[in-house]
Amino acid sequence: MSPPGQGAAAGTTVRPAATGLPDLVRRVRAGELGPDPRTQKIAVAFTTSQAVRHEGRSGGYRNEVLSLRLGSAVGSCAVEPGALPAAAIDDCVGTDIATLLGHPLAPVRIAALDAYLMHALPHTPANGAQPWELPAGDSLAKSRARARGVAGLLAVAPGRTVLVVGVVNSLLEALRARGLVCVPCDLKGGRTEWGEPVRTDALAELDGCDAVLASGMTLGNGTFEPLRAHCARHGKPLVMFAQTGSAVLPRLLGAGVSAVCAEPYPFFWLDGGSGAVHRYTGDDYALLGQGGTR
Questions:
Q1: pLDDT for res 9
Q2: Closest CA to 257 of 10, 1, 18
Q3: Residue 58: pLDDT above 80?
Q4: Interhelix angle for 169-177 vs 139-151, to 10°?
Q5: Whether the predicted pLDDT of 78 surpasses 90
Q6: Mean pLDDT, residues 200-226 taken together
Q7: Given this model, what pLDDT does residue 68 score?
Q8: Which of 58, 122, 203, 228 has a CA 20 to 30 Å removed from the CA of 17?
Q9: Do residues 277 and 4 lie in contact, with contact meaning Cβ atoms separated by under 8 Å?
Q10: How is the beta sheet containing 73-79 ordered, strand by strand?
Q11: What mean pLDDT do residues 147-173 have?
């Protein structure tokens, strides 16, 4: 496996790209991180629906993702299955990024922001990304390989309590293997593979946890900013695992986000072959295009 980032080079000007999600949107609108978003139009919009039950697991789940293509880049935002109006896809095609950033549906806004940042600041070492290889295999093997890459970004000692927002059983398994105590939380509720109750109000659990591991889906459902603000205020590690907003969250490193495991489309569950996710750590971020150098 590839090692995590080794930190910025001596003399590098290191600073967060934005103070939070609203500030990041403002900077994109102003063209500070790439081309004028009024000139960047979405060519293709599509959704991906998935149902899965891994071999040996008692339960399964469904995913639905909105994806927008800008040039060679694809930006994505997960939605609750069946919640996205069919007309939303028609709204996106042929429409410029600046307009989509003001769309009434949050998933459209996030997918558009993700597509723009994927186009302007792709997942490359020059932009702070370090690849974490995923071997070929069945869906469970690849899920566990990704989980090890995500869990390895959480810099907390055994015995500490981690709030896990967006329940993925492979992630819970990987965290437990490190001796961490997990508080699983998901808007859908239910129980984990081990029968534990899943909390539904992440914000109510924050004070009792030492660190947070959260899904990029929090960008689309409006819960990300309160999580980020709490972790920034209290100095708690916040690690994001992101299919949703994989290019968005690295630009918030140092502004409450400690590390990101970014997974752009196509996701690991779409292909049995080898692949990679992209890991970013807090000492690897820089505001590119505004005096930051690597």
A1: 36
A2: 18
A3: no
A4: 50
A5: yes
A6: 97
A7: 98
A8: 203
A9: no
A10: 44-52, 61-70, 73-79
A11: 95
Q: How far is CA 84 from the centre of its chain?
A: 20
pTM of the model: 0.89
Per-residue DSSP letter, 20? S
The C-alpha angle 164, 106, 116, rounded to 5 degrees, equals 95
Mean pLDDT (whole number) for 40-45: 98
Share of the chain above pLDDT 90, in %: 78
Evaluate the CA torsion angle 254, 234, 248, 183 in order and state its sign. Answer: positive
Cα R_g (the chain), whole angstroms = 18
* pLDDT over 50 at 3, yes or no: no
Residues in Cβ contact with 32 at an 8 Å cutoff, skipping those fewer than 6 apart: 289, 290
Q: Buried b vs exposed e over 167-177: b needs ≥16 C-beta within 10 Å? A: bbbbbbbbbee
48: β partners: 65
- List strand residue ranges (DSSP E) for the chain, in order: 44-52, 61-70, 73-79, 130-134, 161-165, 181-185, 211-215, 238-242, 259-262, 275-281
Element (H, E) at 172: helix 169-177
- Among the residue ranges 42-46, 117-121, 166-170, the one predicted with the least confidence is 166-170
DSSP 81-146: TT-S-THHHHHHTT-BHHHHTT-SSHHHHHHHHHHHHHHHS-SSGGGT-EEEEE-S--HHHHHHHH
The two tokens of residue 168 are 């993925």
* Residue 63: burial class (beta carbons within 10 Å; 0-12, 13-18, 19+): middle
Q: d(Cα 135, Cα 138) in Å, to the nearest integer?
A: 10
Q: What are the φ and ψ backbone dihedral angles of 241, each rounded to 5 degrees? A: -110, 120
